[in-house]
């Protein structure tokens, strides 16, 4: 088998350490500028000054620009850049974004096409773009092995061969992922196909088909700040303000009919418990890997970092309503550490776990969009699930963490199977086309576990049947008790390996990550 560390842009140990040191210095320079902003100091002279996402068709909810690959000759250009974003009036914050100051455009690709991505890096640090949920070979995945140096450009051609789904693209530069995603390097990637289009689902982007990228961020005096301190490594970066598409608790004007929400948890660490303020029901139709076989009627939905969900909700009653979430218990605990430089503007009412926070409000508007009302289809997308009896191997993974671990520590406090991440070590070797069962559990707390290059099904949770919300094709799942995953490996990874890791980004950066080849 070829050595995956000799191809696909991967680094040897010496270069990796040099690059990481240089990147950390560059990030510290950016953070120092960010600190100056937070204290009312100097602004970035060369930065972009536009306010992200002026309202487009959906009231005050910013709708990221839609870039459809077919309308651009199967060529999409992205550029990672520094900028300034006004989240609150009169308060500018230093941020990062793709083709703008914060976040990136929504990219739409079509099943069966080959799409070339031209990704430039205008930052002062290395970066990558990982196509989270896209099934492509390892050298195209955008992992830490496909670093893009400052001033450089990466041009992968992505074969789109999977069913319709809502995906997520973001930075994945090891040691910098948490910082860069928190600062804005993320966006939505949508795969569409004829089967989905034939279902009659709401599909007017920005009108009845809304991108909803949810993040929590920390603000002090209206400016974005980077949380630091002893709890960041163990709990991940969390914030006192919820953003949707880069705006704090915005309002969306929606048609008074069925609307499709594409929910993406873009937070570094927070798990959301989503419902509507009037307890209305909605229909869950899609997971990370695409549409479910049947729609599921729910009143609440859990969404962990890296997870996506598509839902249909009716606004036919014409009544305003809010998408809400339960309070973040971990953030409340961290808020009490404010004297240690943790959370900043902490509010007493956030200690009340019985209350909810507003994520996004909806104002129905008669006749908006002009399309006929869609109906909720009972049957969605048929798919073939691998036979568990076909599994050729079982593997065991334990996500380890020491509560005493600190950011930038060398004691291996964050690891998988007691081994912190090493970019020069291949942890597992898998056969192309093989079916395996991976049993995964987490210590100390619940972890969102993500596997690159695959979609999997949940077989069992804690020795019992999967939970209702475990169903469908997944690429990210919450584990604490042991969860058995049925995985088929159809994408090669010999030129560069795939990753598996905790999607609490600070855990990932600290070493809770491994890598595997497929060949």
From TrEMBL:
Statement: the UniProt record of this protein carries the keyword Metal-binding: yes
CDD domains, per the entry: CuRO_1_CueO_FtsP, CuRO_2_CueO_FtsP, CuRO_3_CueO_FtsP
Domain Plastocyanin-like, residue spans: 82-195, 406-518
Keyword Coiled coil: no
Domain of life: Bacteria
One Pfam family it belongs to: Cu-oxidase_3
Keywords of the record: Metal-binding, Oxidoreductase
InterPro entries assigned to the protein according to its UniProt record, in alphabetical order: Cu-oxidase-like_N, Cu-oxidase_C, Cu-oxidase_fam, Cu_oxidase_Cu_BS, Cupredoxin
GO molecular function, one term: oxidoreductase activity
Record protein name field: Multicopper oxidase
